[in-house]
Amino acid sequence: MSEPVGIRVEGVHFGYPGRPVLRGVDVAVEPGELTALVGLNGCGKSTLLRIVAGLLRPGEGRVLVGGHDLARRSRRATARHVALLHQSAPAVPGMTVRQLVRQGRYAARGPLGMLREGDDAVVRRALDDVGVAAWAERPVDSLSGGERQRVRLAMALAQDTRVLLLDEPTTYLDLHHQLDVLQTVVRLREERGLTVVMVLHDLAHAARFAERIVALRDGGVVADGAPKEVVTPGFLADVLRVAGRVGRDPEGDWPVCYPDHPLPSSK
């Protein structure tokens, strides 16, 4: 197993004409760490993830993965080091699970390599690690939402990178499948030595599964630390705009939030 790599986001600005999104973001993710990005809709979480994946270029600042500046790498070269699981992806009618997972090998194999029939060892391992090998010949569009998300996770793993980025991986899933996906990510991080950054809307999941929480508001970092340190009633008010209380899980000792009511918009 290769050593995990770290991520450094240094002074990153990004925006569109008349609409700044990120304003001088600094984040350092240690090798092998599992970090959750949280905040209200529109605060820049998904944009930051796409910049770290090399899909967007910052207007100012830089991103380093394993010490290498992404500005000096092509998108395909970056995809050999960073895998991104998007919020959603359109189903391709008739595509099987095996065919979809094989798409994760594009960065490594290239267009000509993708024409070759058969799986390589990386695809087989991805199917096995996520527990979807038995579905390999099933059409993806015949799967449930939770099953499909596991297959998409296998596709991301097939990129065979040291960094895994997940943009709201539990969106639209019921609680059973939310926990299934998150526990699978935690297990794979340990087994594969991955550095993982997840955008999560559910603060309860972030507080339970992440080692660290980074909160964004108005395009900047407003909280950064271990869940026990940063998740407080003030955090709920300042970051998520809700009044509430914070307790502790009696078994795991992670923070448990009890939101009471929304607060007026700060704008």
Automatic annotation (TrEMBL):
Tell me the CDD domains matching this sequence.
ABC_Iron-Siderophores_B12_Hemin
**GO BP terms, alphabetized:** iron ion transport
Indicate where this protein resides in the cell: Cell membrane
Q: How does it sit in the membrane?
A: Peripheral membrane protein
Q: Which InterPro entries match?
A: AAA+_ATPase, ABC_transporter-like_ATP-bd, ABC_transporter-like_CS, P-loop_NTPase, Siderophore_ABC-ATPase
What residue stretches are annotated with the ABC transporter domain? 7-243
Q: Which keywords annotate this record? A: ATP-binding, Cell membrane, Ion transport, Iron, Iron transport, Membrane, Nucleotide-binding, Transport
Question: Per its UniProt record, what SMART domains does this chain match?
Answer: AAA (SM00382)
The terms under GO molecular function for this entry are:
ATP binding; ATP hydrolysis activity
- Report the domain of life of the source organism: Bacteria
An example Gene Ontology CC term for this record:
plasma membrane
Query: Does the record's keyword annotation contain Transmembrane?
Result: no
Which PANTHER family does this entry report, sorted A to Z? Answer: IRON(3+)-HYDROXAMATE IMPORT ATP-BINDING PROTEIN FHUC
- Name-wise, this protein is ABC transporter ATP-binding protein
Q: What is the lineage of its organism?
A: Bacteria, Bacillati, Actinomycetota, Actinomycetes, Kitasatosporales
